[in-house]
Structures are given as C-alpha cells and as structure tokens.
Design goal:
Blueprint: H1 36-44, H2 48-62, E1 70-71, E2 90-93, E3 99-105, H3 113-128, E4 140-146, E5 158-164, E6 170-181, H4 182-185, H5 198-208, H6 215-223, H7 226-239, H8 242-267, H9 274-300, H10 305-312, H11 316-324
Parallel strand pairs: 3-4, 4-6
Antiparallel strand pairs: 1-2, 2-3, 5-6
Helix pairs in contact: 1-2, 1-7, 2-7, 5-6, 8-9, 9-10, 9-11
Length: 325
C-alpha cells in the first residue's frame, strides 16, 4: 500500500468530519474512536465485546496480560473544596488492585498536557493509597492516546514515564504515565500486519477504522486480534444510532470553539486575559450550545441526565432546570 499524504498531515481528520454529520452519513459509516465519546463507548459498554476490548487494549499497552478489569467511577474524590475537579474518560481497577485512567486526546490543547496527565496520575495514586503501618499503594497508570506529538524531538510511538533522578535511577514505579503517539503510529499505515506491535495495531484501528479507503487493510488488522475485533463490533453497534453521531458532532464543535479561543488569544499576546477570555467564551457561547444539545438528548429519553452531564461536561442542573422551565 502506498503511503497516504494524510499520515503526516498536521490536521489529520477522521473520514466523516463531525462538524458535517449529526446523523449517520450512510448505512456503513462508522464513528471515529478519535472522538472521546466513541472512544469511551468502546470500552465501557456492559457487553462481552466491550470488556474483551478493554482487557486487550490495556494488556497491549502494559505488555502483560490483564484480566478481570473493573470499571470505576470516572469522577475521583477531592480532599478539599478548592482542589481541582476532574473527570477521567475511563477509570478502571485491575484484579491486583492497580488503577488506571485511560484518555483519548484528539485535539491539541495550548496547555502542557503533561501537567494534566501528572495531576491525574497523582490523584489516582492518592486515592489508591492503603491504610496501614507502612506507606503502600498499588501501582497506577495514566494512559493517554494523543492525536499529536507531545515531545518536540523524539516522537516515539509510546513513551512511558516514571519518577527518576538526574542520572536515570528510578525512585519508584508506583506512578506511571504512558503516552501513545497516534501521529507517529499512523506512519506505519501499510506495514504488513504481522510486523506491527499490539500498540501499533490499536493506534491504526483508532485512526482508520472509520475510513473506507483503508477498509481492506484495517479488516485484516482487525482479524489479527480478538480484542480489536471486539472493539470493531462495538463501534459498528454504536454507529447505528443517529444520537451517537449527534453527540460526536457536539463534542467536536465544543472542542474546536475552545481551541479557537485559546489560539486567537495567544496570537494577540493576551496572556493576562487568556483565562478570562476562555471563561467568557464558555459562558456566552460554548456552554449555551452544550445546554441546548443536552436538552435535546434528554428529551429523546435514551440517555440519563448524569450520562448527558458527563458527555457535555456541564452540571445536571444546567439543562434539567431549563427543560422544567
């Protein structure tokens, strides 16, 4: 297969750009796992396929077989009212007590994503510490699939961070941060399936399962791994519902608008007013759009208010009160 020019394109987009489709484009169109609503849906359904896909993905990343994965609440507790709140895409516990947060970061943010990942990993570790006479906590893993290069020089397909000193000696392996570079993995498009690593297979699946131009190649890739085959089954099932296309579109627009505000503020050099400008934009535009979309989903009756709240990152009261009124 010839290399596609989009494999190195900074503005790589899924086959069906979310801003154009609020319903299924055609009977065989598939949602893109690059959007966090679909990514999250692949691994959190109460089905055998979803559970198998989650076990297989985590096992591929960690390089060991992980069984009996348990989904956990994706809103970690806070120690104080002024501590930053956060929501994990996927929060899981392994049968040995280890915890993991799994994220899909499809759109590049202006802030240091490493800082966000470190805070998420630290919260996991804090919540996993055990009471006793000795300091002890099972390991935690913050796993992020990034649709951009995080590192500026060495863009490896997967980078695994732990705490080390200046000479490289490890302090502890309790806290693990793992970045999967999807842009780098896309350069493997066309490589014989037998020569791909498990992580490369998952990265190519996330990037191209929705693209019929590479259907034959991705079909062969899917057949090579039971876990990826299960993930494809979930994507196909989710893609049948127009509501999921609507959600994907809404998440894309919210993400795009926020990033546009950040970019424009930086371009004008308004560092001091950046935070205020973003907050105003969210309040005046993005939040209102999110509320309207949330109301539509609530009226359909296919999602609970809590599920809609998590999808749009807004409190339940913001859209349920509007409906009542």
């Amino acid at each position: 297969m010839e290399d596609d020019e989009n494999t190195n394109d900074k503005e790589f987009e899924p086959k069906y750009p979310a801003q154009l489709y609020t319903a299924r484009p055609n009977p065989t169109a598939l949602l893109s796992p690059l959007y966090d609503s679909t990514f999250k849906g692949i691994f959190t359904q109460e089905t055998e396929d979803s559970n198998l896909a989650l076990q297989a993905f985590v096992s591929a990343v960690l390089g060991r077989t992980v069984k009996n994965v348990i989904l956990k609440p994706n809103e970690p507790s806070k120690d104080s009212t002024d501590q930053i709140g956060m929501t994990y895409d996927i929060s899981i516990e392994f049968d040995n007590g280890e915890l993991s947060d799994i994220e899909m970061q499809a759109w590049k943010e202006s802030y240091d994503y490493g800082m966000r990942a470190e805070i998420q990993a630290a919260r996991l570790l804090n919540n996993n510490s055990k009471k006793g006479t000795d300091w002890y906590s099972p390991k935690v893993y913050q796993i992020s699939s990034l649709n951009f290069h995080y590192g500026k020089d060495d863009n490896k397909e997967m980078t695994w961070y732990t705490l080390k000193d200046e000479s490289g000696d490890r302090l502890t392996d309790r806290q693990n941060i793992i970045f999967i570079d999807l842009k780098t993995i896309r350069e493997k498009l066309g490589t014989p399936i037998k020569d791909l690593t498990p992580v490369e297979k998952w990265g190519l699946f996330f990037s191209y399962v929705d693209n019929d131009k590479y259907a034959d190649y991705i079909s062969e890739l899917v057949r090579s791994e039971k876990g990826i085959m299960a993930a494809e089954n979930v994507v196909k099932y989710m893609s049948e519902a127009d509501d999921n296309w609507f959600v994907q579109n809404s998440r894309f627009i919210a993400e795009r608008d926020k990033n546009t505000q950040i970019h424009n503020a930086e371009k004008r050099g308004l560092e001091a007013g950046l935070k205020q400008g973003i907050q105003q934009g969210i309040q005046q535009g993005e939040q209102q759009k999110a509320i309207e979309n949330a109301q539509k989903l609530l009226a359909d009756g296919k999602y609970t208010a809590k599920e809609i709240s998590e999808l749009f990152q807004i409190p339940v009261e913001a859209f349920t009160d509007k409906v009542k009124g």
